[in-house]
Amino acid sequence: MTSPKAPASKASGKPDRPFPTLLLELEARATWDGHVCGVDEAGRGPWAGPVSAAAVILNPDDLPKGIDDSKALTEKRRAVLEIDIKARALAWGVGFASVEEIDQLNILHATGLAMRRAVEALAHPPVHALVDGNYRFPLPCAVTPVVKGDSRSLSIAAASILAKTARDRLMIEMDATYPGYGFASHKGYNAPLHQKALQTLGPCPEHRRSWAPIRALLEAA
């Protein structure tokens, strides 16, 4: 199977940026006898809400078209690709770590917990995981960290889409439970609306108490 090629820039004849392919997955499968999954997270930086992670084992003979780093896609395009990835992938899983777990463990270890839950949710246990970033999270299989993995690996890019859409959906639901904070629009990240709501309403149960801005508000109360 030929890996997708990046489009060339009209001015330079070179790719504008790297696009994900299956090269890393094929290299891993040549070494490891079994399924290789891509893993990524969403929501490490927000002031509120859980951190999510997804794991995806793609079918190299039935790849959805247009998979890319979730940050490079529109919300509408992510929604379409989420359905396509779930329909065509050999297996996919999503996991979360709660605000309480983030505050108890710290965001790095909570992210690893969400990733472990996502990998454990896969219908086919992988023997190897390609994980976005430079940290080797302890997962129930061998792990290869991949810096900028969501722009290099199709499996990681697919996981980035599922992690993002799952968390966004949860934050929209949270907006109905805790109105006034604007969770549906900013998804818990720092934003003027969020700052103003915190000054007026104070933190809600879904705010990360260990985050400096939230901790400062609680100490000032």
UniProtKB/TrEMBL annotation:
Enzyme class: hydrolase
Cofactor binding, per record: Manganese or magnesium. Binds 1 divalent metal ion per monomer in the absence of substrate. May bind a second metal ion after substrate binding.
A single GO molecular function term of this UniProt record: RNA-DNA hybrid ribonuclease activity
PROSITE patterns, per database record: RNASE_H_2
All residue ranges annotated as the RNase H type-2 domain in the record: 34-221
Similarity-based family: Belongs to the RNase HII family.
The protein's name: Ribonuclease HII
Organism of this sequence: Brevundimonas guildfordensis
Lineage: Bacteria, Pseudomonadati, Pseudomonadota, Alphaproteobacteria, Caulobacterales
